[in-house]
Amino acid sequence: MKTTSLLLILAIAALSSCGSGGPATRTGRAIDHGVYKAGYGIKRAGQSIENAAR
Known about the structure:
mainly alpha, 85% helix, single chain
């Protein structure tokens, strides 16, 4: 009985670690993506201002 319970717990732990991550991981990736896009937009705006000043 102990062996079966241990194997079941290990199987559940192994299966739960698969995938694209939990909610916190997905939220972090979404925030990183949003910050990257905002930074890219600010960079383009700065380049436009520099080009207009020439």
